[in-house]
Design the sequence.
């Protein structure tokens, strides 16, 4: 069809058959994102925030309902949009994970009580007004600028509402990323999820330079990673003559041709994927971006991007490169060890709480690599359970971080957390619980997740890696513990930060994350069973 | 014989109740945190209720059934995480029940001791008592679990309340000690987790499905290749050796023991560390029988080295808390010797030693706490001649010390004698070396007693206390007669409350010294069963000599 001569005009490109029910969550999210853009264009400024929050929330709920309706009907694996998307057990599970994790992230994002007016920078017009009139963003501003600010004059200042469509687009991209059945679809999904994230990183209301630096760094390195990924696709296509994951696997198993192109291609593909998953040695952006981005965006990135990246890594390794596992596993062993060691050791030296969590995420990425490398049903199930557990804990951790504030925004420096338990025992208690979950103490989801992943890895012949991972866990526990020590055993500083009483949105987000951490630690069976219910199709 | 219950089928809920009562008590402390006296009363009531329930459990435990071959009693089991093959499975044998009883016996007394303790600034008594109850709950869980996964969960979870107990209520270097304690234990626990996962994978290979049920794992233990067993053994052993602690994994204990508040130190050294030696008997020997035999010489070397080395270090200590901690390391060497000598008599001795050491070290720590409450200093050199001022206190300290050095007539003599007697047939050399440790024990206890209690009244802490009480002027020596006359003014003898704390301990120490049969009868069937699981001939049957 496409190989026919160009002279034979007109070439008809037929619409591939689409399984609307199976792909419903995906197109609901993308439709919601487009509607959200339109709302942004047509609504008057003061109505945008409530309408956008409502629209985004409804989109997520609708996508979740569609997903639940489809998943509960017990479908088999489906290839749709031609063979571009694979809606199989892992896809459905990861979609569910992404949507459910997006809800607390969105709540943090939409909150305007913790940081008056929201975490995002005010509009350009408002900032211009602020520059000209020395205010203008609220009751105290000169009257001639009041009409240019968001909200009615007697309301608190508000924020830009572009983040809402950004989040939906990024979420849609992530969902397409984990379900992509060929490398080109995967690349497009990668771009769709990345571009909104680059923008979101640069939108912090406070510490503008740090935020912009983060955005630029993330964008430049991300662009490089995308280029590597694309080049990897080209090499693999050169080897297999196809970008379909299944056909790559068949080509690799069935020929005696030189493997050089295949493995060079895999290496470049992995650079792109490991970059997204912030696996060392492709992690260098992580601390800067986590620190500079507005905290709710960091929460969204830390939880959802991790899910998307590891979902895609697992799919590529399982479906396309499952037949050549013995060739590449040694290299990924090294990557996993480097990631665990870098995360655990450099995390020890951090003094900023967000950077510390960033290094913790690098160490966790190393643990996740164990699950991604274990090419067994238990490996997939363990990996996906780990992603859910880690996502909820991380969102809640960033929610708590956003509450501890000094005079100029969040109290990032660890020393400012001294004696927090005295000032706010509940917040300190929740943070302790979440940190223990990150450290993997039993009765938290972190332990169950580690157990699931490590037992799968051990059963698949990775005993030395499991031992290294456990030692790295012990090292990492030290820096989590340091925060606990500071909060409980140190005396609070005189001019220390205050703990903001959060509004309903942040409260709900933190509660959701904390409860999930507890429930997945004590009664993980339903989620474990769902995670184990299907394997990759394609 | 009572048949073991099918995993996941329910059973006797008493052990669950034993676990939940202190948990509920600890949670109730939160709403009561502003009302200190109510919080203390509720905590004490909870601890007493727990003790009563343990007495009920003891009375329900059937020794004839245990002798007939029932491994666990009062069993309870519900499925927990089917994907991992874990159960919420509880059950006790005689050893576990003895340890639970020791815990429940100590906690009310410790609460009484902590009743009027001066806490660091900004700390509430409700939090203090809540942590004590939480520690008690995790200890009940760790001893009662019959599912290895569940055991691991409690093994790690019990770090958390103890960590806060040390870090929030301890001495001047408490942060350092708490973090060191936590990291050491966590490292051991994570190494054990690797072995735990390995055990699960091995069971999946042997049975076709992974399991954590102790009885099932024990039934396949003999079929696991020795090389696999050795790796799995090492993971568990390191965790237990850190917990117990054996030399060279012991360095956290002197810090933690010295910096923890007295009640925390008693629970830590008296009960929580016994989880390590309990783990030797319950997990290492039955689950890795061949590996235990292969590795026994290594463990015995560490045990005997600990007996001598820690005793020598105890002689040289200047801090009273560290002194007691080092004596404990030496005693843990005796327990480990008894466990790895592989005779049921030595097992019985080691188990009895665990109980007795909890009592004697508990009393020793309490006496140290009493001294510190009078003088404010933790240093041995700051005290002297206390016997002239507070003879009852000195007498109690002497009894605690005599129990610690295993004087005949005190509880520890029976256990130490049993360990040495039971170990001799299999390990004569190690036993003879360990016997030398007894001499050092006499040295460190008597010298400690002599420096602090005997001779003229002296020592900066004592003098300062007397001066605060208006007894004497400046000067490093006080005339004994004057001091005796002014007794009670600055350095009062034991108060009624302190006697209330000590009386049950004294009774237990003396009674078990003359009549250890109740405890021995409880544990003997279980140690015989452990011997059978190990699969070695028994050179000296338990109860053969001492009944």
Sequence:
């Amino acid at each position: 069809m496409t190989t026919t001569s160009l002279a034979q005009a007109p070439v008809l490109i037929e619409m591939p058959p689409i399984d609307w029910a199976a792909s419903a969550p995906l197109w609901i999210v993308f439709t919601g994102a487009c509607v959200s853009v339109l709302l942004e264009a047509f609504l008057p400024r003061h109505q945008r925030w409530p309408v956008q929050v409502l629209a985004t929330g409804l989109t997520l709920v609708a996508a979740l309902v569609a997903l639940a309706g489809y998943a509960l009907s017990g479908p088999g694996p489906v290839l749709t949009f031609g063979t571009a998307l694979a809606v199989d057990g892992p896809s459905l599970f990861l979609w569910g994970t992404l949507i459910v994790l997006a809800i607390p992230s969105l709540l943090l994002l939409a909150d305007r009580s913790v940081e008056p007016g929201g975490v995002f920078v005010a509009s350009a017009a408002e900032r211009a007004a602020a520059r000209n009139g020395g205010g203008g963003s609220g009751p105290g501003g000169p009257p001639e600028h009041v009409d240019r600010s968001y909200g009615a004059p007697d309301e608190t200042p508000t924020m830009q509402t572009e983040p809402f469509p950004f989040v939906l687009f990024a979420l849609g991209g992530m969902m397409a990323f984990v379900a992509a059945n060929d490398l080109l679809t995967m690349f497009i999904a990668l771009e769709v999820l990345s571009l909104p994230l680059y923008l979101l990183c640069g939108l912090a209301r406070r510490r503008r330079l740090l935020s912009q630096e983060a955005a630029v760094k993330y964008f430049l390195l991300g662009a490089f990673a995308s280029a590597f990924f694309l080049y990897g696709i080209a090499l693999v296509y050169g080897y297999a003559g196809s970008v379909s994951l299944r056909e790559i696997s068949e080509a690799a198993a069935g020929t005696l041709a030189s493997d050089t192109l295949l493995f060079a291609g895999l290496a470049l593909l992995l650079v792109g994927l490991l970059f997204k998953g912030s696996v060392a040695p492709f992690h260098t952006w992580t601390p800067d971006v986590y620190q500079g981005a507005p905290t709710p965006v960091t929460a969204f990135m830390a939880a959802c991007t991790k899910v998307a990246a590891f979902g895609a890594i697992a799919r590529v390794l399982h479906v396309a490169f499952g037949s050549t596992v013995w060739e590449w596993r040694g290299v990924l062993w090294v990557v996993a060890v480097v990631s665990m060691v870098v995360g655990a050791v450099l995390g020890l030296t951090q003094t900023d709480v967000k950077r510390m969590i960033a290094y913790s995420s690098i160490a966790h990425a190393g643990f996740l690599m164990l699950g991604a490398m274990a090419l067994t049903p238990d490996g997939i199930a363990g990996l996906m359970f780990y992603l859910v557990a880690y996502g909820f804990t991380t969102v809640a951790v960033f929610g708590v971080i956003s509450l501890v504030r000094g005079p100029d925004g969040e109290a990032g420096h660890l020393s400012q957390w001294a004696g927090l338990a005295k000032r706010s025992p509940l917040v300190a208690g929740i943070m302790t619980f979440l940190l223990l979950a990150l450290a993997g103490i039993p009765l938290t989801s972190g332990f169950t997740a580690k157990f699931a992943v490590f037992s799968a890895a051990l059963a698949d012949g990775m005993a030395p890696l499991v031992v290294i991972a456990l030692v790295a866990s012990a090292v990492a526990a030290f820096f989590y513990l340091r925060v606990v020590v500071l909060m409980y055993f140190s005396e609070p500083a005189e001019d220390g930060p205050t703990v903001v009483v959060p509004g309903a949105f942040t409260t709900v987000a933190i509660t959701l994350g904390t409860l999930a951490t507890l429930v997945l630690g004590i009664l993980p069976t339903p989620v474990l069973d769902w995670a184990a219910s299907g394997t990759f199709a394609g | 014989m009572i048949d073991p219950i099918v995993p996941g089928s329910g059973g006797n809920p008493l052990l669950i109740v034993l676990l939940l009562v202190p948990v509920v008590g600890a949670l109730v402390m939160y709403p009561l945190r502003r009302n200190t006296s109510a919080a203390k009363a509720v905590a004490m009531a909870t601890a007493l209720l727990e003790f009563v329930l343990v007495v009920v459990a003891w009375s329900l435990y059937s020794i004839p059934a245990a002798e007939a071959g029932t491994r666990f009693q009062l069993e309870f089991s519900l499925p927990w995480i089917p994907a991992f093959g874990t159960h919420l499975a509880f059950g006790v044998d005689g050893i576990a029940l003895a340890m639970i009883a020791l815990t429940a016996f100590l906690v009310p007394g410790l609460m009484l001791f902590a009743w009027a303790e001066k806490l660091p600034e900004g700390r509430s008594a409700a939090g203090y008592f809540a942590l004590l109850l939480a520690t008690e709950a995790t200890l009940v869980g760790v001893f009662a679990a019959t599912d290895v996964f569940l055991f691991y969960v409690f093994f790690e979870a019990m770090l958390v309340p103890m960590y806060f107990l040390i870090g929030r209520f301890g001495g001047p270097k408490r942060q350092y000690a708490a973090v060191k304690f936590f990291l050491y234990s966590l490292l051991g626990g994570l190494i054990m987790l690797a072995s735990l996962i390995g055990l699960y994978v091995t069971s999946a290979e042997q049975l076709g499905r992974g399991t954590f049920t102790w009885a099932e794992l024990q039934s396949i233990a003999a079929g696991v290749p020795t090389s696999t067993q050795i790796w799995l053994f090492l993971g568990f052993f390191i965790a237990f050796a850190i917990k117990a602690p054996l030399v060279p994994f012991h360095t956290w204990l002197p810090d933690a023991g010295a910096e923890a508040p007295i009640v925390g130190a008693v629970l830590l050294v008296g009960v929580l560390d016994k989880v390590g030696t309990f783990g030797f008997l319950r997990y290492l020997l039955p689950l890795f029988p061949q590996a235990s035999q292969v590795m026994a010489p290594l463990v015995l070397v560490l045990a005997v080295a600990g007996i001598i080395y820690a005793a020598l270090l105890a002689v040289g200590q200047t801090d009273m808390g560290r002194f007691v901690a080092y004596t404990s390391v030496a005693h843990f060497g005796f327990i480990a010797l008894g466990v790895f000598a592989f005779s049921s008599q030595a097992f019985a001795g080691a188990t009895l030693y665990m109980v007795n050491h909890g009592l004697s070290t508990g009393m020793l720590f309490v006496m140290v706490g009493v001294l510190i409450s009078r003088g404010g200093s933790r240093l041995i050199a700051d005290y002297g001649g206390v016997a002239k001022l507070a003879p009852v206190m000195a007498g109690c300290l002497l009894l605690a010390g005599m129990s610690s050095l295993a004087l005949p007539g005190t509880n520890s003599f029976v256990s130490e004698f049993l360990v040495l007697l039971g170990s001799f047939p299999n390990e004569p050399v190690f036993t003879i070396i360990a016997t030398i440790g007894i001499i050092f024990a006499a040295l460190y206890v008597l010298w400690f007693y002599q420096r602090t209690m005997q001779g003229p009244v002296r020592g900066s802490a004592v003098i300062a206390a007397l001066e605060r009480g208006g007894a004497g002027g400046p000067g490093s020596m006080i005339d004994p007669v004057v001091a005796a006359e002014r007794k009670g003014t600055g350095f009062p003898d034991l108060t009624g409350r302190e006697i209330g704390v000590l009386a049950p301990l004294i009774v237990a120490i003396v009674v078990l010294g003359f009549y250890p049969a109740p405890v021995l009868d409880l544990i003997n069937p279980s140690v015989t069963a452990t011997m059978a699981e190990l699969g070695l001939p028994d050179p000296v049957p338990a109860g053969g000599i001492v009944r």
